[in-house]
Amino acid sequence: MGKIFIKGCTIVPISGPVIEEGVIAVDGDRLYYVGPANALPAGWQADTVIKADDKVALPGLVNAHTHAAMALLRSYADDLPLKEWLEKKIWPREARLTREDIYWGTKLALLEMIRSGTTTFADMYFNMDAVAEAVLEAGLRGCLSQGLIGFQDEDGGRLASGVSLVKEWQGAGDGRITTMLGPHAPYTCPPEYLTKVADTAAGLGVGLHIHLAETKGEVADIQSRYGATPIALANRLGLFELPVLAAHCVHLTAEDISILAEKKVGVAHCPESNLKLASGVAPVKAMLSAGVNVAIGTDGAASNNNLDMVGEIRTCALLAKGISGDPTAVPAHQALVMATLNGARALGLDKKIGTLEAGKKADLILVNKRLPHMMPSHNVEADIVYAASGNDVDTVIVNGKILMSGGEVKTLDVEEIYAEVKKRAG
Ligand SMILES: CSC[C@H]1O[C@@H](n2cnc3c(O)ncnc32)[C@H](O)[C@@H]1O
Ligand SMILES: [Zn+2]
């Protein structure tokens, strides 16, 4: 780790105004200084100096909802609605995945995430100990949840695996790994099962990661079964007494939005997955106005079909404008806040990450601005949101460790990953 000195960059700290020709000093796993060059204490000596006058520094991006191992299923089933996609294609294929498939699928996803500037991700899947191993090696931060499908868990084995994940992995990798329990959705987890999972999570002191209100069909189904919307049902069952990360939240009533705000539920908005599965468009502008903490996620690579958060930020901003007819909806700065600080908050990590401020963990990215589509730069936040892509990310640092520099990922063997996923893709 040691000391890193990044000099001459444009800094988008998220917590304050953009700093031109700034410097960032990293000491061990923390940010020691972020600001103009003239205020860095004299005599501060670094082991590594990064000359970054053609780069923009941002907090690492937080992918607030994904299923990393589904990178193995990229383009396996496309152009279908969610129910048919899951029931006819994805679940039968997932039933044949081995622990090793999940490990290598996750490694592919981690490689893609590092390359496109994600430093933290929230994951829900099976065999999460394999995911945790991959995260330890790759060097990212992961908030990991064992996925729990109630009707596949009659003997409680899946929930027991979720409990083991929390007990064995919470805080591992110098705190890079955190955990939650992941009840899949109200249409796969009956109320008694949801309550049991919530009680278990409360006993362990962790939160819940769940899909809620993704399609019109789900809302109609839950309404007819339980006489409540998915959000109202989750609230009635007491889930929102815990920290909850709720993916999608597309089809909401005004009452649902009030509940999400009041209960401080973190919403992972997944615009590209929602568009591709034609699930609908989440009411992001209304949620933000009501004070809901809305973050951004890609969902899995089988429904997106990439894990590029820079592209997802752009889709989020454009879609909010297009659907509302209001070009001021989700302006560039707001979109960046959603992908960084709001993501950190939704994962319970905002004291540690999400902004570039002295004292926080050193999770940051440097984006190349010496590119035709990034010039002449009247507004660097707008350049990142409306013009950049994940390919423009040059350097990624997590917990003070350089994971990628000059576009080269240091912690993963790219050729080995490609060979393994090719072998396992069938
Ligand atoms: C129980 S592990 C996670 C489970 O979720 C499935 N999944 C992937 N994308 C979605 C989505 O958009 N909505 C609902 N469920 C989804 C995944 O295939 C796993 O089975
Ligand atoms: Zn999902």
UniProtKB/TrEMBL annotation:
GO terms for molecular function: 5'-methylthioadenosine deaminase activity; metal ion binding; S-adenosylhomocysteine deaminase activity. Its cofactor is Zn(2+). Its EC number is 3.5.4.28, 3.5.4.31. It catalyses: S-adenosyl-L-homocysteine + H2O + H(+) = S-inosyl-L-homocysteine + NH4(+); S-methyl-5'-thioadenosine + H2O + H(+) = S-methyl-5'-thioinosine + NH4(+). CDD domains: ATZ_TRZ_like. InterPro entries: Amidohydro-rel, Deaminase_MtaD/DadD, Metal-dep_hydrolase_composite, Metal_Hydrolase, MTA/SAH_deaminase. Belongs to the metallo-dependent hydrolases superfamily. MTA/SAH deaminase family. Keywords: Hydrolase, Metal-binding, Zinc. It comes from Neomoorella humiferrea. The keyword Hydrolase applies. Catalyzes the deamination of 5-methylthioadenosine and S-adenosyl-L-homocysteine into 5-methylthioinosine and S-inosyl-L-homocysteine, respectively. Is also able to deaminate adenosine. Gene3D superfamilies: Metal-dependent hydrolases, Urease, subunit C, domain 1. The keyword Hydrolase applies. Residues 57-403 form the Amidohydrolase-related domain. It comes from the Bacteria. This is 5-methylthioadenosine/S-adenosylhomocysteine deaminase. Substrate binds at residues 94, 158, 184, 214, 299. The gene is mtaD_1. It is an enzyme of class 3 (hydrolase). Pfam families: Amidohydro_1. Binds 1 zinc ion per subunit. HAMAP family: MTA_SAH_deamin (MF_01281). Zn(2+) binds at residues 65, 67, 211, 299.
